[in-house]
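Colleagues,

For the teaching module next term, I've prepared a clean inverse folding example: a structure given as tokens, and then the sequence designed for it. I'd like students to try predicting residues themselves before seeing the answer, so please don't circulate the second half yet.
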């Protein structure tokens, strides 16, 4: 009798254990995120990423069956952050990707969007090179495979510098990573007179890092307020996101709260704080301008896949963005056949102070012919911006669409070339140990690009124009001394580091 009872209890315990295991298994399977799958990618979707994945044996991409509604996300974002400024983006400027969910766009245009193929040009029919159609945008999202980024305000430490990232944000709100390009730039507040003319020609996101040590913070903040509140239009408020940074040795005595700051309109009856600046805290303290810190701060904050790291006094040719992205979407040669990392350099020029900045390559060529425009730094450092096939570029007439004019390399007679280019977040950073005062601050990045065998795909119709006024070389003994010391650091410390990290390649040099 006792034995039978023991057998019965043993069998019951087995049944209970099995039931517990089954229940646990059901709970675990039920916790899997619905609609999320991990699937192997059989081949890279685009030449843009082909070189990034050369050493990967297994690549996985996460697909979500339910797409993110960008407009809804933007509303949630604005509600969850403290700086609540209503968007002034005109309805006509909203792209499909910023006003509808990705699946909604895909359903509308899926029959018209060809499958991305890195080895062939696409059959997308582009009717207007100066705009981006929903079909093109949907195709770009698939082709680029980029991830959207946020614009949350953050206080970060970067080496010896404190960074107030997204200190005052543009009113455009969240944007999809594929739908536009961010102009990333930098300045001291005394150069902020360039912001409005730059944005007038760019009309897209600008990420601007302002160096504001010590007492420079107050005029810097007031300059931002003036640009947002006191001009004849609101394009600065709409497009420009401002970041502030300063050394831990020169922290301002008081840092204003941007939420409180923006609640009170600026007194526009006063002159702009950035006009006719005679002296700054930075100059009084003999501080060097940390140009590469500024460049990297602005770049890191950009929320788009493509970025144009440039200087604030360089104004871009109009309609550059839609023409460039339409070119990317067409994916014609050499884009479709490229197997190397690549960037897209833009030709740079100066114009006489008495003349307006040209609005097209046709106008620019006419000014070059009558000598009212010249190649950038022709009388300062011609080799620094001597672009491959530069003369052929100037001789070539403007075309009705953007294409790659020539694929160059940074070697040979162009070994000291300092290109300004459209690139991505994957490109090498600028070395933050180098200052503007020490000169040749972009050379280390150029060396890395050369060693990594980047293709420099020079654009046929795009150009940058420096703020009017022809520059001439002026000897500066103080700056030459700083440049000598910086050059010694590059030669003795930085260059050996780069060779260890990235190796060498025949023809590559600083």
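(Answer key — instructors only)
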């Amino acid at each position: 009798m006792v034995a039978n009872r023991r057998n019965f209890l043993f069998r019951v315990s087995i049944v209970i254990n099995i039931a517990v295991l089954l229940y646990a298994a059901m709970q675990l399977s039920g916790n899997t995120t619905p609609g999320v799958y991990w699937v192997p990618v059989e081949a890279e979707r685009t030449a843009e990423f082909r070189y990034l994945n050369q050493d990967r044996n297994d690549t996985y991409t996460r697909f979500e069956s339910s797409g993110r509604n960008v407009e809804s996300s933007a509303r949630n974002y604005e509600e969850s952050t403290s700086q609540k400024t209503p968007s002034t983006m005109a309805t006509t400027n909203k792209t499909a990707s910023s006003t509808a969910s990705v699946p909604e766009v895909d359903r509308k245009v899926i029959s018209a969007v060809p499958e991305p193929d890195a080895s062939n040009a696409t059959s997308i029919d582009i009717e207007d090179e100066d705009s981006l159609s929903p079909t093109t945008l949907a195709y770009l999202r698939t082709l680029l495979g980029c991830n959207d980024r946020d614009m949350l305000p953050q206080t970060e430490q970067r080496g010896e510098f404190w960074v107030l990232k997204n200190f005052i944000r543009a009113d455009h709100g969240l944007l999809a990573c594929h739908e536009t390009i961010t102009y990333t730039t930098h300045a001291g507040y005394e150069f902020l007179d360039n912001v409005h003319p730059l944005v007038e020609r760019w009309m897209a996101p600008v990420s601007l890092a302002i160096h504001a040590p010590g007492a420079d913070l107050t005029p810097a903040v007031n300059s931002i307020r003036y640009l947002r509140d006191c001009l004849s239009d609101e394009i600065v408020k709409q497009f420009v996101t401002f970041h502030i940074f300063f050394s831990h040795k020169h922290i301002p005595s008081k840092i204003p709260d941007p939420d409180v700051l923006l609640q009170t309109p600026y007194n526009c009856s006063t002159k702009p704080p950035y006009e006719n600046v005679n002296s700054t805290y930075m100059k009084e303290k003999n501080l060097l301008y940390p140009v590469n810190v500024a460049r990297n701060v602005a770049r890191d904050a950009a929320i788009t896949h493509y970025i144009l790291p440039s200087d604030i006094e360089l104004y871009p040719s109009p309609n550059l963005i839609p023409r460039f992205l339409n070119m990317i979407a067409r994916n014609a040669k050499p884009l479709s056949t490229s197997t190397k990392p690549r960037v897209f350099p833009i030709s740079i020029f100066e114009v006489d102070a008495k003349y307006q900045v040209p609005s097209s390559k046709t106008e620019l060529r006419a000014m070059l012919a009558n000598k009212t425009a010249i190649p950038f730094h022709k009388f300062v450092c011609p080799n620094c911006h001597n672009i491959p096939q530069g003369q052929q570029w100037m001789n070539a007439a403007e075309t009705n669409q953007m294409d790659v004019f020539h694929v160059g390399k940074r070697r040979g007679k162009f070994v000291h070339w300092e290109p300004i280019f459209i690139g991505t977040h994957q490109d090498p950073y600028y070395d933050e140990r180098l200052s503007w005062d020490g000169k040749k601050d972009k050379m280390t990045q150029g060396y890395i690009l050369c060693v990594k065998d980047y293709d420099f795909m020079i654009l046929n119709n795009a150009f940058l124009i420096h703020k009017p006024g022809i520059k001439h070389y002026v000897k500066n003994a103080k700056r030459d001394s700083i440049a000598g010391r910086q050059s010694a650091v590059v030669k003795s410390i930085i260059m050996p580091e780069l060779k260890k990290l990235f190796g060498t390649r025949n023809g590559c040099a600083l």
